[in-house]
Amino acid sequence: MRDEKGITLIELLAALSLMMVVSLLIYGVFFDTNKNYSRFSEKTSLQQEANLMIMTIKSYQQKEDSYLLSYDSSKDKAFIGKSEAKLPLHRNDITVTSFKAGNNYFECNDTNILDIGNFTVIPPSQKQLFICIKLKNKQGQTYQINTSVKRY
User: Which of 1, 82, 132, 151 lies in the 20 to 30 Å Cα band around 12?
Assistant: First the structure.
């Protein structure tokens, strides 16, 4: 009998190739999970930005006698203010693709409701304002919110 101590070259190559296949599988799962996490966090960021916009409008609706809403569709920016609509409603890395408001309930896709133009005054007598906002981030993800704010 021969004295067989150690491993052969074929056994070593088989072990290395098996380790490579397993590591490639783990590598793929890790990067897919990381990509999905990034996409999910960006979508959550859009939702938070839309909620912040609505809360800002609601704050003006509750506290001010009248205020101005402005939407510049050429720059995809929305603004709010008391005497001038200069305060941006959103971060610079997010664009507002549509910003609609009205006295009656409407759907965001309703073509009869026009986008807010420059300097739309919201009077104090208007107790309820229906709003539709569509946001888009730099990754191309979109988020739409259709809600109303009331003055009590």
Answer: 1
Distance CA 90, CA 97 (A): 12
Per-residue tokens: 130: 């229906």
- Three-state secondary-structure class, residue 144: strand
pLDDT tens digits, one per residue of 112-151: 666 666 546 666 556 788 888 999 999 899 999 998 888 7
For the chain, the structural domain boundaries read 9-150
Q: Which residues 6+ apart lie within 8 Å of 30 measured at CB?
A: none
CA-CA-CA-CA dihedral for 70, 74, 77, 80, to nearest 10:
-10
Q: What angle do CA 54, 124, 65 make, to 5 degrees?
A: 85
